[in-house]
């Protein structure tokens, strides 16, 4: 495997290679993931994570590898204050204790008031009633992006009952119409993770193929993606992109696909993959993301 590129490109040459601005788009209006990735590395956005206890460390390390600055402020009394200061916010429902739900509500309210973009990861929605009801409450605070697996997105859209706990039992291919409807109803970009990720703003559909199945063997592999989406949305806003939520979601999924593919080539199993994955996220050059995303129909491959 070739390990190309500096971990944190900052030069004018790097910026030119990344493609300029997020307003530059690929075929059929697909956002320029390379430009967003370059901006993320340059700007080091501060990302607040109110996330589950199982994945906190891995999520913070993934964010650091992207060049972002994680802040794991997840207690009532300071969660809202941090959300007003942060570049972006992640709310992940993996372990929704009473105290954490209070912090999530506080952070989401503050983010909406301050104009801080935030990402909802509705872990386990549909299969577990408490978090399902709470996720619907959080939707009223206007997330910029909803990122989940197929079963979670279908359940949140009212078109499914959820998966097996936090695991999806549905295919991404069957979520297109529901994802577009959920986007239209909430105003959020909806990103559905799978072998071929589907991302929609309610009008357009973008697909990002690739990645590695080993991501599903590492605790936090999917949850950390939500944090990267938040960081990338903040970066896209810094480029004055008119579709920053879509551009950020596409860039984050493209970065994950490239990094996990490279990591899998050098991994002996889940343990070495997790370490290699962090290395590859830090190494991936912006130009490697160009061409990873494509426009597609809701049911297209």
UniProtKB/TrEMBL annotation:
UniProt keyword terms in alphabetical order:
ATP-binding, Kinase, Magnesium, Metal-binding, Nucleotide-binding, Thiamine biosynthesis, Transferase
Residue positions binding ATP: 147, 193
Q: Please report which protein family the annotation says this sequence is part of.
A: Belongs to the Thz kinase family.
Show the Gene3D superfamilies listed in the entry.
3.40.1190.20
Q: What CDD domains has UniProt attached to this entry?
A: THZ_kinase
Q: Where is the composition biased (Low complexity)?
A: 18-29
Domain of life per record:
Bacteria
- Per the UniProt record, which EC number(s) apply here? 2.7.1.50
The residues listed in the UniProt record as binding substrate, with positions renumbered to this chain, are 72, 220
Q: What class of enzyme is it?
A: transferase
Residues of the region (Disordered) are 1-29
Q: Which Pfam families match?
A: HK
- Give the GO molecular function terms: ATP binding; hydroxyethylthiazole kinase activity; magnesium ion binding
Report the record's Gene Ontology biological process terms: thiamine biosynthetic process; thiamine diphosphate biosynthetic process
Q: In which pathway does it act?
A: Cofactor biosynthesis; thiamine diphosphate biosynthesis; 4-methyl-5-(2-phosphoethyl)-thiazole from 5-(2-hydroxyethyl)-4-methylthiazole: step 1/1
Give the catalytic activity. Answer: 5-(2-hydroxyethyl)-4-methylthiazole + ATP = 4-methyl-5-(2-phosphooxyethyl)-thiazole + ADP + H(+)
Role this protein plays: Catalyzes the phosphorylation of the hydroxyl group of 4-methyl-5-beta-hydroxyethylthiazole (THZ).
UniProt protein name: Hydroxyethylthiazole kinase
* Required co-factors: Mg(2+)
User: SUPFAM superfamilies, from UniProt?
Assistant: Ribokinase-like (SSF53613)
């Amino acid at each position: 495997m070739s390990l190309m590129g500096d971990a944190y490109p900052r030069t004018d040459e790097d910026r030119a290679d990344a493609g300029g601005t997020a307003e530059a788009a690929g075929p059929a209006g697909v956002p320029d993931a390379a430009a967003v990735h370059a901006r993320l590395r340059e700007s080091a956005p501060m990302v607040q994570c109110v996330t589950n206890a199982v994945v906190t460390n891995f999520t913070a390390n993934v964010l650091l590898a992207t060049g972002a600055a994680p802040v794991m402020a997840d207690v009532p009394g300071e969660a809202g204050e941090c959300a007003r200061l942060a570049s972006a916010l992640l709310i992940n429902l993996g372990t929704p204790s009473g105290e954490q739900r209070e912090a999530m509500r506080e952070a989401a309210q503050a983010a909406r008031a301050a104009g801080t973009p935030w990402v909802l990861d509705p872990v386990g929605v549909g299969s577990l009633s408490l978090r399902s009801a709470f996720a619907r409450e959080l939707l009223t605070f206007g997330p910029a992006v909803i990122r989940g697996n197929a079963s979670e997105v279908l359940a949140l859209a009212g078109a499914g009952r959820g998966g097996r706990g936090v695991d999806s039992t549905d295919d991404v291919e069957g979520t297109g119409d529901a994802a577009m409807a959920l986007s239209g109803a909430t105003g959020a970009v909806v990103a559905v993770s799978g072998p071929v990720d589907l991302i929609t703003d309610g009008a357009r559909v973008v697909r990002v193929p690739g990645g590695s199945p080993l991501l599903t063997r590492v605790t936090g592999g999917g949850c950390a993606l939500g944090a990267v989406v938040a960081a990338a949305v903040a970066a896209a806003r810094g480029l004055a992109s008119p579709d920053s939520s879509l551009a950020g979601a596409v860039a984050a999924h493209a970065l994950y696909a490239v990094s996990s593919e490279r990591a899998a080539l050098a991994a002996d199993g889940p343990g070495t993959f997790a370490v290699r994955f962090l290395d590859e996220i830090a190494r991936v050059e912006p130009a490697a993301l160009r061409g990873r995303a494509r426009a597609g129909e809701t049911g297209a491959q």
